[in-house]
Amino acid sequence: MKTLIVVVFAVAAALWLLNTSLLVTPPSDTAKILAHRGIHQVFQQEGVENDTCTAQRIEPPRHAYLENTIASMQAAMDSGAEVVELDIHLTPDRQFAVFHDWTLDCRTDGKGVTEQTPMTTLKTLDIGYGYTADGGKTFPFRGRAQGQMPTLTEVFTALPHGRFLINFKSDRREEGATLAVLLRAHPEWRKSVFGVYGGSAPTQETLRLVPGLRGYDRQSTLACLGRYVAYGWTSIVPEACHNTLVVVPANYAPFLWGWPDRFAARMKDAGSEVILLGRYGGGDFTSGIDSADDLTLVPKNFAGYVWTNRAETISPLLGKRMAATNSQANRE
């Protein structure tokens, strides 16, 4: 019995020593904001399904920005976002339309499938047409966003100092190949692409064709996190977690070996960046750190990217918290 106790104690001590953050030098960098869809009109996420028209359930507007527009991306960067997430569709005239929805019927005055509609037609649409916060009594953005759906080329040109996480909305491999061709033709835009994600086929095709680019899809994320949970306690980082973007739901983060500082150090040594999401509840990986309450889920020394739907709120709150932490450290 005594031998068993000693063995258990030794194993527990070894696990602690291998995975405690107390023995790791805290990162010198600070947390960075990743603005999902730029600054945009937010909505209640309870009960949202794939076919829910979220433009019809927005909260009362507090600003005039619409998602995936150049103005919303600029506003996100002005608020402190280091990376802006955007959504793309490859149209029949070989342009990348920057727009979230698979179809046009919810947000715009158009009809049909986004990727099946020429960019010349998409440019005529009012992308604020369908937004309402009161069940259709009023439409506060109708008539104010005619022709504001940008192409990816226009985004890169208008915001040359921006960095973007590109979401492939389809699973067409040709989207990845076309993006790779675009970046090859304009090497100056390569630095603008922080990473890619979304549909597995275009994501993996882009990563194959663009050396050094990071990205992820659902399968690669589950492979990375699942294998790390299985044997990350050994300090071995699975190959699936190397040279990639590691997205971590905040409510699962405490179950990762060495979270936060030891985990972050391992991912950095593996050439990867960590993106902290909001709580994962079984839907897609897009819930964000969107309130002061959510901000408590971000570790004090976290130096990765904080995914948020409210960059205009979270960026200043995060700044104040970091300033308070630095002030306390200076006093000590």
From TrEMBL:
Gene3D superfamilies: Phosphatidylinositol (PI) phosphodiesterase. Pfam families: GDPD (PF03009). It comes from the Bacteria. InterPro entries: GP_PDE_dom, PLC-like_Pdiesterase_TIM-brl. Signal peptide: none annotated. Residues 31-318 form the GP-PDE domain. This is Glycerophosphodiester phosphodiesterase family protein.
